[in-house]
């Protein structure tokens, strides 16, 4: 009888503990994916999922197999496939979101009762989320302490190679007719097709992930700490969507980085690995707080007088706030499904503080538009930036979008790329066009409010409004 390998967020052949274990069991493999509405991601990440499935199917085909794709509730579909194929064992890599954990636990119980072997493996994180704990066994609330403790656990296990030889079973006819062809996945946008920018920017898959990692380690790790904050330089790894879909594991990144450590300073290497640490911290928070994306971790914020302002929310979503760096970021997100980390912080702060709109609106927009959206990192970072989370930036620290722009995009090249209507302005005027002199504007042909959006709020007034709202909260 075949062994089923259920792929979920682990679209790779190397360092795939479930696949390796299944291959070592000696049974011929049936590799499958289930498109379950309860666990499908937002629109941009669905586009990525489509590419991830196709890329893994191509890899499996070149080894004589296939990736079989089904649709429906996993709790019904998986047990049915087990029955129809006569499989005696099922293998998967663990997921850690609340819905995924609950689903997997229920399926495991049901299959075990039916005498089926179910084996689940670690792989999406450096350390299982329940292993990094304070001395008294509680989860950490502060990143630095969390990360120190995680590092004390030592190196993650060395990555596994791709299993040397894979043998595959055929899908029995009873089951085959339920399988989907790529035309039926229905994960790509149809009308309108807004994915051109995503296609131009990304190629989902394991091979691309390792190419990117290689380029990052040779070209950018050595200057990571100093240059990661400058969006125009594009020197961060851009591995986030590849990690999200498991084309690459944090363990692979960890060990590859350690091998390169001699060529980069300790500061750069530690800074980069600490970013992987933030990802771990986020998952450990979600593991403890199921409702991380919907509930203020600091309950005082439940009384925050957030504004209901659909027009301002829309302006933010469409990159039409009039603040050039904010608009550049929101347009980069819309076109490519990704935004530079520094700019994510600026746009998040702008929504929550300048517009005084509930961070959950921003969390939802990012969930639908980011190719790297994951429920842990997104919710953690939104709560961090909104000041509502644990170990968060305090609410009263209001980022000034103009100063951030001058500091991190000094020559305006990121702004010029994403807000082309401002391109003719000189560097000195591009960060706040409405403050430029009439001559400068006329010369560049830029008229705020006509050729480009005028600022929808005044920085100083908005800041005061946010602080007044925050002061109204009881500690
Ligand atoms: P690098 O700088 O190369 O970092 C390497 C890896 O470390 C990243 O791929 C990512 O996996 C991890 N990482 C880096 N920074 C963070 C961070 N602050 N929190 C958690 N992990 C991090 N990241 C997501 O992966 N998914 C999200 O949904 C997400 N939402 C965010 C929302 C907001 C409001 C903010 C401010 C940040 C969010 N981030 C999210 C974190 C961060 O912006 C991205 O991980 C990063 O920009 C990805 O680019 P990179 O791969 O080039 O990062």
From TrEMBL:
<dbReference type="InterPro" id="IPR006050">
    <property type="entry name" value="DNA_photolyase_N"/>
</dbReference>
<dbReference type="Pfam" id="PF03441">
    <property type="entry name" value="FAD_binding_7"/>
</dbReference>
<dbReference type="InterPro" id="IPR018394">
    <property type="entry name" value="DNA_photolyase_1_CS_C"/>
</dbReference>
<protein>
    <submittedName>
        <fullName>Deoxyribodipyrimidine photo-lyase</fullName>
    </submittedName>
</protein>
<dbReference type="InterPro" id="IPR014729">
    <property type="entry name" value="Rossmann-like_a/b/a_fold"/>
</dbReference>
<dbReference type="InterPro" id="IPR036134">
    <property type="entry name" value="Crypto/Photolyase_FAD-like_sf"/>
</dbReference>
<dbReference type="InterPro" id="IPR036155">
    <property type="entry name" value="Crypto/Photolyase_N_sf"/>
</dbReference>
<keyword id="KW-0274">FAD</keyword>
<dbReference type="Pfam" id="PF00875">
    <property type="entry name" value="DNA_photolyase"/>
</dbReference>
<dbReference type="InterPro" id="IPR002081">
    <property type="entry name" value="Cryptochrome/DNA_photolyase_1"/>
</dbReference>
<feature type="domain" description="Photolyase/cryptochrome alpha/beta">
    <location>
        <begin position="1"/>
        <end position="126"/>
    </location>
</feature>
<dbReference type="InterPro" id="IPR005101">
    <property type="entry name" value="Cryptochr/Photolyase_FAD-bd"/>
</dbReference>
<keyword id="KW-0157">Chromophore</keyword>
<comment type="similarity">
    <text>Belongs to the DNA photolyase family.</text>
</comment>
<keyword id="KW-0285">Flavoprotein</keyword>
């Amino acid at each position: 009888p075949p062994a089923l390998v259920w792929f979920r967020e682990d679209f790779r052949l190397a360092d795939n503990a479930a696949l390796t274990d299944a291959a070592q069991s000696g049974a011929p493999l049936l590799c499958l994916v289930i498109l379950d509405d309860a666990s499908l991601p937002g629109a941009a990440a669905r586009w990525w999922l489509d590419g991830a499935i196709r890329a893994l199917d191509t890899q499996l085909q070149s080894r004589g197999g296939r990736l079989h794709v089904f649709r429906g509730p996993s709790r019904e579909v998986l047990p049915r496939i087990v029955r129809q194929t006569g499989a005696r064992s099922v293998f998967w890599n663990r997921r850690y979101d609340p819905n995924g954990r609950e689903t997997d636990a229920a399926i495991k119980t049901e299959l075990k009762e039916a005498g089926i072997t179910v084996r689940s493996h670690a792989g999406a994180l450096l350390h299982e989320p329940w292993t990094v704990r304070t001395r008294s066994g509680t989860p950490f609330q502060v990143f630095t302490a969390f990360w120190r403790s995680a590092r004390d656990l030592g190196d993650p296990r060395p990555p596994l190679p791709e299993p040397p030889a894979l043998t595959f079973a055929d899908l029995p006819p009873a089951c085959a007719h339920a399988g989907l062809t790529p035309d039926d996945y229905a994960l790509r946008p149809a009308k309108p097709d807004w994915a051109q920018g995503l296609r131009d920017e990304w190629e989902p898959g394991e091979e691309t992930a390792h190419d990117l990692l290689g380029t990052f380690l040779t070209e950018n790790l050595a200057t990571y700490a100093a240059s990661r904050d400058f969006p125009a330089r594009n020197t961060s790894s851009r591995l986030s969507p590849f990690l999200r879909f498991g084309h690459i594991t944090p363990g692979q990144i960890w060990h590859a980085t350690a091998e390169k450590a001699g060529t980069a300073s300790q500061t750069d290497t530690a800074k980069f690995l600490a970013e992987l640490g933030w990802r771990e911290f986020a998952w450990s928070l979600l593991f403890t707080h199921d409702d991380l994306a919907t509930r203020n971790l600091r309950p005082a914020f439940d009384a925050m007088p957030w504004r209901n302002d659909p027009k301002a929310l829309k302006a933010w979503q469409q990159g039409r706030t009039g603040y050039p760096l904010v608009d550049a970021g929101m347009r980069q997100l819309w076109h490519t499904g990704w935004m530079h980390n520094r700019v994510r912080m600026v746009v998040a702060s702008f929504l929550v503080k300048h517009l005084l709109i509930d961070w959950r609106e921003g969390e939802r927009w990012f969930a639908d538009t980011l190719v790297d959206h994951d429920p842990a990192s997104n919710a953690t970072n939104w709560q961090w930036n909104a000041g509502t989370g644990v170990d968060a930036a305090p609410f009263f620290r209001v980022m000034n979008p103009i100063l951030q722009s001058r500091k991190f995009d000094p020559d305006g090249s990121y702004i010029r790329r994403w807000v082309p209507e401002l391109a003719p302005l000189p560097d000195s005027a591009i960060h706040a066009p409405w403050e430029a002199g009439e001559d400068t504007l006329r010369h560049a042909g830029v008229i705020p409010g006509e050729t480009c959006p005028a600022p929808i709020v005044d920085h100083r007034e908005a800041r005061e409004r946010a602080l007044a709202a925050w002061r109204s909260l009881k500690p």
